[in-house]
Amino acid sequence: MIPLVKTFLPPKNVLLPKLEEILYSGYIAQGQAVEDFERKFEEYIGAGNTLSLNSGTAALHIALILAGVNEGDEVISTPLTAEPTNVAIKMVGAKIRWADVDTKTGNICPTSIENVINEKTKAIIVVDYAGIPVDVERIQQISKKYKIPVIEDAAHALGAKFNNKKTGNHFPLTIFSFQAIKHLTTIDGGAIQILDDDLYEKGKIIRWFGLDKKLKRLENNITEQGFKYHMNNVNATIGLLQLDFIDQIIKKYIENGKYLDSQLKGINGVELIDYYPDSEPSYWLYTLKVDDRDAFISMMERNGIMASELHKRNDLHTFLNDNPTTLPNLNYFYNKMVHIPCGWWVSKDDCDKMIHLIKQGW
Ligand SMILES: *Cc1c(COP(=O)(O)O)cnc(C)c1O
């Protein structure tokens, strides 16, 4: 079975000597390797400061704090995402306000965001679902007009671009996940790409108990709630090596994604994603809309290809459904959407097989 997601790790002869070195170096906590990983990740993204963390969920949690979200506030979000996006909103005691999705992409709809903004709205979380960039330009305009900060959850979209610039360049706070099945894994890990230098300094303190690592322990005075969210040298060592491979890995996702885009056009019962102008997806999953999705999934699975909707729409979780709303666009999209594999492990022959199967019908 060709899986929908698969972990990439550097070859053994590259990874194991470096791992052995760091494991027995006498210093495996947050140190030089973490510092090096952050600077190298910044270089990859091309703007801002990297605050490395031990998960993408920790990144969302700190991003919400840095955006100034408090108990009783509201955060506008999308139900079409992995649960951590929305669970994190509850971690700061805020309530979730759903915006509907755009039927073209499945991503949060700017018009719907504008319709649900109210005096309690303190932040907007947007998700580049499956690696498809959000409508960056319109969301930036809304953020400016209402003076509400945007957090971009780019856990699926490392290496995706808008206007030739990678995710991490467009909003004040962009979060990434380095969990096992994302484009880049450090086994577990995450980061916030923070454009503002002062917010970055604040983030460093929050990630480590509220303590300032630049001061001696006895000179420290905790003045706000912090957490134990930092990355350690072992995960950072893996991340540093992963960054040597990331361009070639993401290139594979994109080549496969573009090939599928070009070959699956005009097939009966298939609707392709209509990407926003000047945006380049990084195709963490290949997404399409199909008629009779269950039959499509069975047909693909009978032929050795995993196909799935993968995520449960988050408004179906009681705990997350703070403000039940009718979401007609999501109803339409969620009914038809399906993901098929397109990552680094998928060959051109695999793509051709999928194309042939889909053309035959289900
Ligand atoms: C994976 C993921 C996260 C959380 O990342 P972890 O590193 O698993 O905590 C957040 N948002 C989305 C959309 C994700 O897919």
Commentary on this structure:
By secondary structure, this protein is α/β, with parallel strands linked by helices. The protein contains eleven helices and 13 strands. The strands form three sheets. The protein has a seven-stranded mixed sheet with strand order 1-9-8-5-4-2-3, with helices on both faces. Bound molecules: pyridoxal-5'-phosphate. The site of pyridoxal-5'-phosphate has 14 residues, from α3 and α4.
Bound molecules: pyridoxal-5'-phosphate
Strand fraction: 5-15%
- Estimate the helix proportion, in percent: 25-40%
Describe the main β-sheet briefly. Answer: 7 strands, mixed
Which regions contain 5 or more consecutive residues with pLDDT less than 50? none
Mean pLDDT metric? 98
Number of helices: 11
**How many β strands by DSSP?**
13
Strand order of the largest sheet: 1-9-8-5-4-2-3
Helix and strand content put the structural class at: alpha/beta
Shape: globular
Q: How would you spell out the order of helices and strands? A: HHEHEHEHEHEEEEEHHEEEHHEH
Rg, nearest Å: 21 Å
Q: How widely separated are the two ends?
A: 18 Å
Please write out the topology.
Blueprint: H1 12-23, H2 32-45, E1 49-53, H3 56-66, E2 74-77, H4 84-91, E3 95-98, H5 110-116, E4 121-127, H6 136-146, E5 150-153, E6 161-162, E7 165-166, E8 173-177, E9 190-194, H7 197-206, H8 233-263, E10 270-272, E11 279-280, E12 286-290, H9 293-302, H10 328-336, E13 337-340, H11 348-360
Helix pairs in contact: 1-8, 2-8, 3-4
The chain binds pyridoxal-5'-phosphate (PLP).
